[in-house]
């Protein structure tokens, strides 16, 4: 270890003069953006190392346990056999929005000492300052944010408890907040003699709740009292906390502005991306303020384009009916039920594309598919904490399959909300490799799942629920933009002007696409931005009722109020299992290049299909027809297919059970 003036190296391997002063944004020699990767050094040993020291001739000690990798272009040291302490970080990779990732190991140079585990994706800002603890930020937080922080901690309780890590949520100094988001510094193993329960969590919360904002204080105190004094179940706590969260969020105004576009790119012969909305149309669609979608088709020579557009149109039809159903509900629909509905919708989209592949007898790399990232803002009615009825609970649901991404951007930070479905991620989830080492693989970015490659049962889906409680921009994009970390590098230049009112959302979309074409330029690019405004000076808009024509089948009335909630019934599984005969009237001459192979993995999950995005084909095919199946409870039923292909729809209806046939519209 040596003490020295710190500098940082450019990540461009071809740079002639890679050494730069810390704090510079770009390399003075080659103009490549500099990466300031701050790490958290775990363990008591690291806490004893003096700031200003350089460890392993690479890591600069900024402050106590906060280190800077001065050579971020080099892979960190990782032992061949992964230590036991690192495995939980890998298993919990899907929770990376809240939890740190294992980066590598560093030796302090002394003999007979254990290497220090370094963590990345930690609650440290771009200048090396650690984010505040919940305790430090609590009193300045809004009422909805206070409840939201507790909700996030509760959602982490189960996955951490399953790995014996629940103590991580009880160490106050370990719980940091980046705006709305709760983030942990590191993971703490619960000792074998400790039997931690919700009572321990409630006791931890007691001190915070005592100084909660007036509008939520009583509700939080009742919840914490139940946790401390009764054997309340986690689901019951979640239900109470969710009701309080939505009631407090609904106090805020909410104004949404959405714009999107897709671009072929500078070198591609055709555009296999699709998005909603698109600047060319969709301007008068009632879904515009609620739904955003980006799809990146795979398959080449027309196939990928068909898959991506079919996915967008199918999702739109299903969401129209889902939102119409939500407006009919007399009580709040739980996050779990809405997540189930969105999962079912994605499985239907998958089966629609898969059925087209099967109908065309496409195998292996000939099968068309698509990635998807979609966001749905759900406008439920709720009585607020102060007693008036609001038309919007500020819920935002997010789903992704493949490597299309979602980011949340404010004036102060840019947060990646999604996790890519690729080989590198798979290696981490299965505890085979640290992420940085997995990225070195030649197939690191090959997709492990996409919509349409196989039956829906093979999909591994995660639907996330967020609460919009601050001004920000939700950015959805295909990898034409996100490749090479362009969003992380340029968000301040391209998003903050929108937040300051200096640029329209539409202009920002085109600017992002121009950036992608200039800096990446090898692929199609799709970008959809949703500018979310909750500033008090904006009035709460009345959520417009969706047009009645989207409700094409009778909605069966339930006998009891609780049965009004959407739930899965026989209709859901029947539709998912159908061997669909899709007559989309498409004149297709498909020549796909979908690289499909399977790699055996020791896991109860179905081995993923590896999907390599190919060079694009030359022909443009317009989608001449479209199919969407709507699944959910009997109250959702079937809509819309008969409008496109009534004969095929009626044939399908005759194949399903009598109980479900009553949901089919009558034949003419």
Write up what this structure looks like.
- The chain has 668 residues and is of the alpha+beta class.
- The chain is built from 19 helices and 26 strands.
- The protein has a 7-stranded antiparallel β-sheet. Strands 13, 14, 15, 16, 19 and 22 form a 6-stranded antiparallel β-sheet that branches.
- The model is unreliable at 538-609, 615-649 and 655-663 (pLDDT under 50).
**What portion of residues belong to β-strands?**
15-25%
For the sheet with most strands, the description reads: 7 strands, antiparallel
The radius of gyration over CA amounts to 25 Å
Give unreliable regions as ranges: 538-609, 615-649, 655-663
Q: What is the count of β-strands?
A: 26
Distance between the termini: 83 Å
> What global shape is seen?
globular
Tally of helical runs: 19
State the strand order across the main sheet. Answer: 1-5-6-7-4-9-8
Q: Percent helix among the residues?
A: 25-40%
Topology record:
Elements: E1 2-3, E2 7-9, E3 19-21, E4 37-41, H1 43-47, E5 53-55, E6 59-63, E7 66-69, H2 87-91, E8 101-106, E9 116-120, H3 134-138, H4 143-162, E10 175-178, E11 181-184, H5 198-209, H6 214-229, H7 234-249, E12 255-263, E13 273-276, E14 291-298, H8 303-327, H9 335-359, E15 369-370, E16 372-378, E17 382-383, E18 389-390, E19 395-401, E20 405-409, E21 414-416, H10 423-429, H11 435-438, E22 463-467, E23 472-477, H12 479-482, H13 486-494, H14 496-499, H15 505-519, E24 525-533, H16 570-577, E25 595-598, E26 609-612, H17 641-644, H18 646-653, H19 658-661
Helix pairs in contact: 4-7, 5-6, 6-7, 8-9
What would you say about this model in short?
This protein has 668 residues and is of the alpha+beta class. The N and C termini lie far apart (83 Å).
């Amino acid at each position: 270890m040596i003490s020295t003036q710190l500098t940082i190296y450019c990540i461009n391997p071809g740079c002639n003069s890679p050494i730069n002063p810390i704090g510079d944004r770009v390399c003075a020699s080659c103009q490549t953006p500099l990466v300031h990767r701050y790490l958290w050094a775990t363990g008591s040993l690291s806490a004893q190392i003096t700031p200003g020291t350089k460890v392993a001739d690479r890591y600069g000690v900024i402050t106590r346990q906060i280190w800077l990798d001065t050579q971020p272009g080099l892979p960190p040291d990782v032992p061949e056999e992964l230590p036991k302490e690192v495995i939980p970080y890998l298993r919990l990779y899907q929770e990376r929005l809240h939890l740190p990732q294992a980066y590598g190991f560093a030796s302090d140079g002394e003999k007979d000492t254990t290497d220090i585990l370094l963590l990345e994706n930690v609650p440290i800002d771009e200048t090396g300052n650690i984010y505040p603890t919940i305790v430090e930020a609590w009193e300045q937080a809004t009422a909805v944010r206070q409840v939201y922080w507790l909700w996030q901690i509760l959602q982490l309780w189960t996955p951490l408890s399953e790995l014996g890590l629940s103590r991580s949520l009880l160490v106050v100094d370990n719980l940091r907040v980046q705006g709305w988001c709760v983030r942990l510094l590191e993971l703490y193993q619960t000792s074998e003699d400790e039997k931690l329960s919700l009572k321990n969590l409630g006791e931890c919360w007691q001190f915070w709740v005592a100084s909660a904002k007036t509008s939520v204080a009583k509700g939080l105190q009742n919840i914490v009292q139940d946790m401390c004094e009764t054997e309340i179940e986690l689901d019951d706590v979640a239900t109470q906390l969710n009701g309080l969260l939505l009631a407090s969020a609904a106090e805020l105004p909410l104004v949404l502005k959405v714009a999107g576009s897709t671009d072929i790119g500078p070198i591609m012969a055709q555009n296999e991306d699709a998005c909603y909305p698109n600047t060319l149309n969709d301007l008068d669609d009632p879904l515009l303020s609620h739904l955003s979608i980006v799809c990146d088709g795979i398959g080449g020579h027309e196939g990928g384009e068909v898959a991506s557009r079919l996915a967008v149109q199918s999702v739109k039809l299903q969401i129209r009916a889902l939102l119409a159903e939500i407006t009919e509900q007399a009580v709040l629909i739980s996050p779990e039920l809405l997540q189930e509905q969105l999962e079912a919708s994605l499985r239907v989209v998958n089966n629609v594309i898969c059925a087209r592949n099967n109908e065309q007898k496409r195998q292996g790399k000939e099968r068309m598919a698509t990635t998807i990232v979609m966001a749905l803002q759900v406008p439920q009615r709720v009585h607020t904490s102060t007693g008036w009825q609001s038309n919007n609970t500020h819920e935002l649901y997010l789903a992704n399959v493949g490597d299309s991404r979602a980011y949340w951007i404010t004036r102060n930070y840019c947060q990646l909300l999604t996790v890519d479905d690729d080989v590198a991620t798979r290696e981490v989830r299965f505890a085979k490799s640290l992420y940085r080492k997995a990225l070195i693989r030649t197939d690191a970015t090959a997709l492990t799942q996409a919509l349409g490659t196989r039956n829906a049962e093979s999909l591994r889906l995660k639907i996330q629920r967020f609460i919009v409680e601050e001004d920000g921009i939700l950015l959805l994009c295909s990898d034409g933009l996100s490749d090479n970390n362009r969003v992380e590098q340029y968000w301040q230049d391209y998003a903050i002007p929108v937040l300051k009112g200096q640029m329209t959302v539409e202009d920002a979309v085109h600017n992002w696409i121009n950036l992608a074409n200039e800096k990446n330029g090898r692929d199609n690019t799709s970008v959809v931005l949703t500018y979310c405004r909750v500033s008090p000076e904006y009035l709460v808009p009345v959520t417009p009722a969706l047009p009645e024509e989207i409700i094409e089948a009778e909605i069966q009335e339930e006998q009891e109020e609780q049965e009004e909630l959407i739930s899965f019934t026989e209709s859901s599984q029947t539709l998912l299992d159908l061997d669909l005969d899709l007559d989309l009237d498409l004149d297709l001459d498909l020549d796909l290049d979908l690289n499909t192979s399977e790699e055996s993995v020791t896991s109860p999950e179905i081995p993923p299909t590896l999907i390599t995005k190919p060079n694009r084909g030359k022909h443009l095919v317009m989608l001449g027809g479209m199919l969407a199946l709507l699944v959910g409870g009997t109250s959702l039923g079937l809509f819309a297919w008969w409008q496109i292909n009534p004969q095929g729809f009626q044939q399908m209806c005759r194949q399903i059970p009598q109980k479900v046939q009553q949901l089919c519209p009558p034949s003419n």
